[in-house]
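Two entries, shown back to back:
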Amino acid sequence: MADDSRRCTPCLEVCHHRGYVHRVQTTHKIPGDSATRYAKYLTSTATRGDYYSRDGADDSPVPSRWHGSPALLRSLGLDADEPVQRDDLRAVMQGFSPLTGEPLRPAGSNGTRVAGVELMMAPPKSVSALWATAGPYRRAQIEAAHHRAVASALARTEREVALIRRKSGGVVRFERAMSLLAAEFVHTSSRLAQDQEAGGIPDPQLHSHLVLFAAERTDGKLAAVESRQLYRSARESGAWYRAELATALRELGLPIERRTGRNQRYFEIRGVPEQLASRWSSRSEDIDRAARLFRQRYGREPRAGELGSLTIATRGSKSAADRLDVNEAWRAVGEEHGLSAERSEQLFDERSISNQGSVDLRAELLEEVTRERATIDERELRAKAYELAAGACRPDEADRLVADLARSGELVRLEDGLWTTRRLRDLERSTVQIAERRATENAAPLSETSLKQARREIGKEIHGSLTPEQREALETITGPAGISQLVGRAGTGKGVVLSAAARAWQLEGYEVIGTAVAGATAQRLRDDAKLDCSFTADGLCNGVEQGRVELGPRTVVVMDEAGMADTERLSRLAETTAESHSKLVLAGDSAQLGPIGAGGLFEQLRDCVPAAELTEVHRANHDWERRAWEQVRIGEPRPALAQYQAHDRLHVHDTRAQAAEAIVADWDETRRNLPGGRAVMITDASNAERDQINAMAQERRAAAGELGSHRVQLPGKPYGLAAGDEVIFSAQLQVPGERRVENGITGIVIDTARHSDRVTIETHERQPREVEVDTAKFSDLNLGYALHVYKAQGITAETSGILTGGWQTDREHAYVALSRAREQTQIYVSREDLGEAGMDLGAIERLGERMRRSGAQEASIAREAEEQAAERQARIEHEIERDRDLDRGFGIE
């Protein structure tokens, strides 16, 4: 294959599993002017699809076949049982019939034709590893299983995906094809990775290039394949392929390990050494690194043409390897890692041993549907069903399962094509019913005397008095209702109101308990509002159930950051406090970061209970910045960004790395001039980026002589810990004989042991303490100079720097990040992140687009079920028709 030919493209789906990555599927469009070159690429690999031949020949046949209805293939002079010939392929890609030379389909409006749309389908890496080490007979069996799965996925695409775009009367409609014309080419190795030397051995990777050329309409004419529809269905197609492949491999006797990789979407063959799969993932790691960089730069997954560019950029050498026997090399590497030919053969008889136990696919699917959000769309529902089916059943059985669950009502179809589960919907409804019932209760009543005294005491602490808005909010949440709600926008003094309420309840003998999803948030609430005690939401409910915590009519439970509570937790807390007749106050803001899991219930409860909202911002010292926060909150970030730019608070750099260096340099200068104040850096990108920023900040402090010389290393981190370092716990630490250190608690390293992995940390709590941490056993520590947005919600700083514009940037992340500091917030972005190489104005506009989009959750009961929506629409139409009849009766036209 010529060096300038197109190669295997990277994937829309990249499976991360056990420390290695591998490509499983890609979709991309082939330009018409690439037809000749691409036809040669697809048909010119030498030895059973390898890119590296033993004899230097470039025209060895490639395993290939045509796909399409028998009638369609006959009309073009093609045969599904014969290999694809290069001349026939070139003709089809150029848009002409190989038999007659006539055009297959009309050219586009610009006079050109797209050669085709390519799908690349590849099995999990363990399958390719087993194929590489197996003998000829077993190889053929694995290839046959792969062929079957590819054909099944193509048939499903033809059957289910509307790939024909037709415009009639100015309206664009999509319809399914009668048949698809496609060709499949099987390759069995990847390109050399960038870090592999010329003359090296490529990784084994069984995969098919499936090129779709045209779709047959109902009138028999051929049309271009609608690539966007193909892209949208990529996850479903890949999941269907893997489920079919896993079924075929199980039938061969191979043991399948289900639910592996990122989000448990994939499968592997159990018994293939993990180290071997990792060893043979070098090309995919190159592409994955490039794809991660792309996501950081542009805030989205790379599209078709961009995927091809990424692959070209990561291409390694090939030319010197054409005399090597890759099969011998692969088997030698397999034996080195414990997968000899004999061991490979044994795996084909291990299914009965490793696949013991039944799979409750129904329960798994119902759990997955609402694991992340309260609703999902049709495509995601199908994709999840097929992903769970891999190793359990065929994908068409998963389709039948979805239909059965819909008929039984366990899956509920909502308006606009969304789905949820009956269980979650019932949970939302029961919580709303509890809230509505308790809204009329007389729980934890207070006298006016206690309220006045509480206001006076809090006024002395804040050296002022509560504003009229805060006083009104105080009266609302301390009213008689069993559940009340306080919506506190960022910086509006929500903590002051909660402190005053807690003081009033305590004056009349009530016990006030603080809670939150995160332990550090609950503890901060307890310390700031001087509550009696605090628990995580799970800890509180578990404690009540187990008899370790007592709630009653003389108890008030205050939940902070309740907008971050998922439906399960919020519902459980509402039920627990209702059963004990305890008052529950929910404080939070749905415009800030939401729950990790199905949510939206906090917002849904606003109309069910007495609710107060704080809107007057007190945290920001500048009027223009208060207005900017509100603009970002409501999804109008452009005027806000213009203000930050006008005040020299918005810094645009060429690269993300330069922006990171700038935020650290400015942070270092600011903190030196900020005695007693806190300066914090916030990123909305990856944990790896946060770690790099922290490492740079640490080096600044070390160069200034502010840290101890000895460092205790942290596994997996680009830094160690030195005396003087600021740290944050990223998991709970159990301390023998003491209360645990909560996830999110910060502290300072005061000592590092020179001959062990131990550090001593003084925690930043209301009652600071020294805890000793063995980092070899507990490595969930991070430097605390830079935080991810999720850890930053709820904190207040004097100044902050925000590195934003990455793939996670949205309205909620931006609002939280921008609203942490009193005095000033500096924003750092890069042109490469935002896809702008020119003027700053273009980059700022792109940043505004990202900050405008919302990731807020919505409860399923915010949408009607499909049947209810249809009935409502029918009623509306009936009323319209009735009015028309009345108009006619009065002679009105």
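entry 2 starts here
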Amino acid sequence: MAMVLATTAGMAAAMPSAAMAQSASARSFDIPAQALPDALILFGRQAGVEVTAEAANTRGRSTRGIKGSLPPAQALSQLLAGTGLTFRWMGDHTVMVEPAPQTAEGAIQLGPVRIEGETGRGNAGYAALSSDGAATEGTRSYTTKAPSGTATGLGLTPRETPQSLSIITRERMDDQQLLTISEVMAQTPGITLGLSGGERVTFYSRGGSITSYQYDGVMNQSDSTTRTMPQTVQDMAQYDRIEVLRGATGLMTGAGDPGGVVNFIRKRPTRDFQAYVQGSIGSWDLYRGEADISGPLVKGGAIRARVVGMAQRDDSFMDFYGHKRGLIYGVVEADVTSTTLLRGGMSYQKYDAHGAPGVPVLYSDGTRTDFPRSTSSGAYWDHDKSDTYTYFAALEQKLPHGWTFKIGAEHMHVDREGHSGSYLFTGGLSRLNRDGSTTIDRGYYFPTQKQNNLTVTLGGPFELLGRMHDFIAGYNYNDYKNFHPTFRDGQSNAINFFTWKNNTPEGEPTERSIYMDIRYKQKAGYAAARLSPVDGLSVILGGRVTDYDYSYYLESFIAGTVTRTTKRIRGEFTPYAGVVLDLTREQSLYASYTDIFQPQSTQDRNGELLPPVVGRNYEIGWKGAFADGKLTSSIALFQVERDNLGVVDVGYTVPGTTNSAYRAAKGARTKGLDLELAGEILPGWNMTASYSHERTKDASGSRLNTERPSDTVKFWSTYRFPVAGRALTLGGGASWNGKSSIYFSRYDVTVKQEAYVVANLMARYEATDNLSISVNVNNLFDKTYFASLQAAALYGTPRSVLGSVRYRF
């Protein structure tokens, strides 16, 4: 077969002036023979450009390498010689590698190299191979083909991942002005939210809560016992994208619930200078400012940095309830050598909520309440403040033969201080009488949370039986400590809820109430391989072995009791299996089995702790990636089983106590369906649409989780087009939530909510190359609904408007 290679002169003649300027000055290259994907990463770093390519096009190919001083275009041409691939410039600092066209006789011919598309859009939908090329910012895309390690660590694209993976890109967050993780998760397919009063938010998926989190792939521990959950109040200014994997994730996260994992992907420094400032004003006195500055610290960008700052204050539609937030994020990244990347940074987030949201749904006689949306349950002085400090570092070392060694480390420290003064609805018992008389609970708490996390991985391609495969092995370490002292004033605080106007004496913390000390320690090793026995078929096998220590100490100074629980698990094995069959270059079928475990503290009739709850996720589906990966879609059928759930062992108590004994039993089973479409339908037209259905039943067949809708539909779309020579983007969407209900056994009362729709709109006009103005209108038709249906329910936000002005430098 003949092969025609484009010469440097031919390429230069075909390139516009911007690309010629990029390729004119020679650079020093030293790239040894190795797997092509890793060689392209080195090329991107040494040339100071961003290289993008479809992973499927580069996988399994190798290069003879290059060495010497060459213009980037000539160097890349030599690097791709014999691979059947060509390249084209998408901008001054972005180049795309793709299959070379073939002549009528079947000869591979490298096409002309050119700049194509508008700046900042050329890499949409491709897996970037430079250190910062995976970023979704600036792509104007609602999807990405950047490899993700959230599921297996193998760096699979969404289509290659045999589980449901949704990605909320920077463009999507900016279009909808999704400022917090709660707002992001509310728009994520298959996710529902539970707000239990105070500042605790729980994300639900596939019949359970999401308790597993990652930051840039590094495992992060979460525990809702003390409500100190920094993960659920994260501001989005510092993140490039959010990856949400639904289903069991035990291979990568160890202990947890099979609901899924949320992976926060931070913004990375850029090789070229870029910056913006943004100011926003919204309903109920919302004022917000953002600034983001990124660029090289030395010529060529071998050392680069980024700083992000945010400040916000807002009231809300509820009386005496609002927030103050602040964020500073800084990161430095350096190419220590041509094969060594080092990154380090920190973030500080301040979160200060005053007042308490929510309204009681029942009176003490079991009849329904009917409060307006403006009602809140907390005193004006009620507050919950937290300061979260996160320090992180990462090292990436390229090794011979396409292998990579990575280390990711993180330390998180949370100081929290709160003074609660709110109506309580506890244990399914309402304390609000029909005449409005009730008691306000006053408490004081000063939790401190610390955790240290470490992830080490080694992975790369290997050849077996004449075919190329992928392998990764890793080690995780997590050390989590949560100290939670609380106090009370010891005095009754009777009020009339109808007339108190959120005003009651503050009191003083005079008595110790309870003290909790919660500790986790997890050490685990895992390995996974993607085997390619024949073309178009991938088999993914993996496993994790975990050592787990847990201790829980609760001292109640009121009751005079002490509870101690310790668990020590060794060698807990968590399997992973998946298969992906390529139907075409754009479509695939998949099936997977994933597993996870969650230790529990309940005891049996012999006084022994029950074995861990084991969650299993079975999933089959179809995925597609069309239009060069700019449009993705998926269909998934799943079943989640939870075994070893603790149920009361009727007639038995724990030896030496009056506590009921428990036994391990077959638990809940969740069955469901996920449909998702995301990406660019036509040039300038982005869309995301999803339908999710899930239904959970216990061992006896009774439905669980009725307070959350079984069916949800989420839709959002934008279209960008020129008006008077400038770009105008118009967008809109709606979220439909099915019926929900909650049953109060004490009163034999069921509170129901019918299905409802919330519609949103946006518009953005790019007045100049640097200045843009946007307006977002949420809950356009001012629908009244409960965003969280619990004992103290929270109304959804009424119609609101947010206006923003952004200036780019």
